[in-house]
Specification:
It is a single chain. The protein is an alpha+beta fold. The protein has two domains: about 240 residues, Aminopeptidase (3-Layer(aba) Sandwich), CATH 3.40.630.10; about 90 residues, Elongation Factor Tu (Ef-tu), domain 3. Helix content is about 25%, strand content about 25%. The chain has nine helices and 17 strands. The strands form three sheets. The protein has an eight-stranded mixed β-sheet, with helices on both faces. Helix 1 runs antiparallel to helix 4. The longest helix is centred in the middle third of the chain and has 20 residues.
Length: about 350
């Protein structure tokens, strides 16, 4: 990955953006896409759409990622000065204890830790995991009055992890789900602009996907592209502890994942696979028999039915502070989707034959 592209990715990953609190992350995304777009639109909740205008008679392709991440929220502050947690999205209670966290207060970030009773003091057979609502953040306050001067109910909380390079082209960190998808959306638009494609290309960074695909539901009808690709992470189960009954053949470094079934429109599936062949890049195939669990599930039922696809980015350890992706998969996804836009006129119309 080129240095300037990696710098943008790191900026996205180090900018806290929990669902409902995405403003800073969305601003950084807009700054990157603006020089390559003819127009950037936003709405009242912070959804961002960058537009690359194409030829009047050419089809339109939207590439969307969601800019929010899971996290926590200040639910209440007790008289002893401890902060009680609530969930933002699908936060995992098994990985929160013993973590450094940042509470994003009105006057700036406040450091804290989610405490864990020392192993010496726990019962030998007590290996249960407390629900998130039963866990507390210690901000070092002497009492509730001091704590309430630092934070208030409704402040967002994120795990204080960093982006780390692993061996080869792998990186690890919190919130790769799904700033890697918004990175691909932005890079698809930039590469499409560089290739001077005929199609109109929309790059989208949605809000509040982790709490019910809310941002995609807000914008799909108004946008109404000919096809939309929702880029999100997909479970890579190429590690020893992956549960056998839920595993697939998806692995890091083997390319982006094309979903088949449910919301995944067969014509868009064929278009992306053909584009991958054109640029000699591998894609993996996944089965989405009931739903995709991504913004594709919101987009495809809007505007009278919008042909949609879930394009996955292989990700180990999803919804933990140590998610792992291969940056080569991200580059490949952007190349494949730019090629899809370049050959969109050949692929359209995106409809089934009856």
């Amino acid at each position: 990955m080129e240095d300037v592209r990696r710098e943008f990715l790191d900026d996205l990953l180090t900018t806290p953006s929990p669902s409902g609190y995405e403003v800073d992350g969305q601003r950084r995304w807009i700054e990157y896409v603006e020089p390559h777009a003819d127009e950037v639109r936003t709405d009242d909740y912070g959804n961002a759409v960058a537009v690359l205008e194409g030829e009047a008679d050419a089809p339109s392709i939207a590439v969307a990622g969601h800019g929010d991440e899971i996290g926590y929220i200040v639910r209440k502050i007790d008289d002893e000065g401890f902060v009680h947690l609530g969930r933002i999205g699908g936060s995992d209670r098994t990985v929160s204890r013993g973590q450094h966290v940042t509470i994003h207060g009105e006057d700036g970030p406040v450091n804290g830790v989610i405490g864990q009773t020392a192993i010496h003091l726990r019962e030998n057979d007590d290996d249960t995991y407390d629900d998130i609502a039963e866990q507390r953040v210690d901000v070092g306050a002497e009492d509730g009055e001091e704590a309430r001067e630092l934070v208030e109910v409704g402040d967002a909380i994120t795990i204080s992890s960093t982006v780390e390079e692993l061996n080869g082209s792998l990186i690890a960190g919190r919130g790769l789900d799904n700033r890697v998808g918004t990175w691909v959306a932005a890079e698809t638009l930039r590469r499409a602009a560089e290739a001077d494609v005929d199609a109109t290309v929309y790059a989208i960074s949605t809000v509040q996907e982790e709490v019910g695909l809310k941002g995609a539901k807000m914008i799909g009808d108004d946008l109404a592209p000919d096809a939309v690709v929702a880029v999100d992470v997909y479970h890579a189960t190429d590690y020893p502890d992956a549960p056998g009954d839920k595993s697939s053949e998806v692995a890091l470094g083997d390319g982006p994942v094309v979903g088949r079934g449910s919301a995944n429109h067969p014509a868009v599936v064929d278009a992306v696979r053909a584009a991958a062949d054109d640029v000699d890049l591998d894609v993996q195939i996944a089965a989405d028999g009931i739903y995709t669990g991504t913004d594709a599930d919101a987009f495809f039922t809007q505007a009278g039915g919008t042909p949609s696809l879930n394009l996955g980015l292989p990700n180990r350890y999803m919804h933990t502070p140590v998610e792992v992706v291969d940056t080569e998969d991200l580059d490949a996804a952007a190349d494949v989707l730019a090629a899809t836009a370049e050959r969109a006129s050949e692929s359209a119309p995106f409809s089934v034959d009856l």
